[in-house]
Design goal:
By secondary structure, the chain is mainly alpha-helical. It is built from four helices and no strands. About 85% of the residues lie in helices and about 0% in strands.
Length: about 110
């Protein structure tokens, strides 16, 4: 399962945006959610997957694509990054809903 040069270039653009979004969106969440162990582990794992995935796809851009095991690892890291971003977005929506409900009750 390889990764073409074009895919490496797209992911080299997307993965830094995932990392920035993780940092910015995490700050807008409720403190109770940010302090939970499972949330910290997911966000740290997502950031690490994005960082290592970025290294893989930049190397893939330099050598005109990745094939074999390198391509598989790059796909796995990119998928983990996008899945972690999805969890962050869902948690952000839930946090915003909780804030709105709390404001209505006051």
């Amino acid at each position: 399962m390889g990764m073409t040069l074009a895919t490496c270039q797209v992911l080299a653009t997307v993965l830094p945006l995932v990392m920035v979004t993780l940092v910015v969106e995490r700050r807008s969440m409720r403190m109770a959610l940010r302090r939970r162990g499972w949330f910290r582990k997911i966000m740290l794992g997502t950031f690490e997957a994005s960082m290592f995935g970025l290294v893989f796809v930049v190397v893939g851009t330099q050598i005109e694509g990745l094939s074999g095991f390198g391509g598989f690892i790059a796909w796995l890291l990119a998928g983990a990054s996008i899945l972690g971003l999805g969890v962050l977005i869902l948690a952000s929506l839930a946090s915003a809903e909780a804030d709105e409900d709390e404001a209505e009750q006051s």
